[in-house]
Amino acid sequence: MENLKTILNLITGAVVLSLFSFILLLFGFVPFYDTKNDEKQHRLVCGTCEQILNEQYLNHIRNQKMEENMTEATTKYTEMSDLEKGKSLWEGNCTSCHSLNDEVVVGPGLKNILERRDINWLIPWVKNSQAVIKSGDKYAVELFMKYNKAVMTSFALKDDEIKAIFSYIKQSEVQQSKAKPQVIACP
Description:
single chain; mainly alpha; Cytochrome Bc1 Complex, Chain D, domain 2; two-stranded antiparallel sheet; elongated
């Protein structure tokens, strides 16, 4: 008797599954594989489902390409020298407010900055100048007041990246001093 129940349950399951598949086919839900850009995507062919799955597929491909581009950019960045990194970071983060000479843009020119301030002071300043000002640091407060309480943007940079920026600034100073003609006084 129990074997008969098991057999009936199996037959019933097979009939229900067949009936379900027939209904899906009847209403146009046909699963198939589509090869696009050598990528296989399983999708159901019906108006709305196909559109949703195509959008998901395209988003997946876009995200994959973005990840590949980010990996490539990260690899190139890792292979750069500290001076190249410093120059890239300088151009991307600093040039809108600072110059490599004495010229004031929004904030002070950074010529000879490493003679005015130690790197161990500059790192927290670049990361969060307002925190340095709030700590009561005399130089920070004077600088803040001198530039009309203009708030310097806080940067989420690593210490090594900040050091690379200041290495680039120092290297630029050296190159500028070499480029200037030497004036020799005549006796």
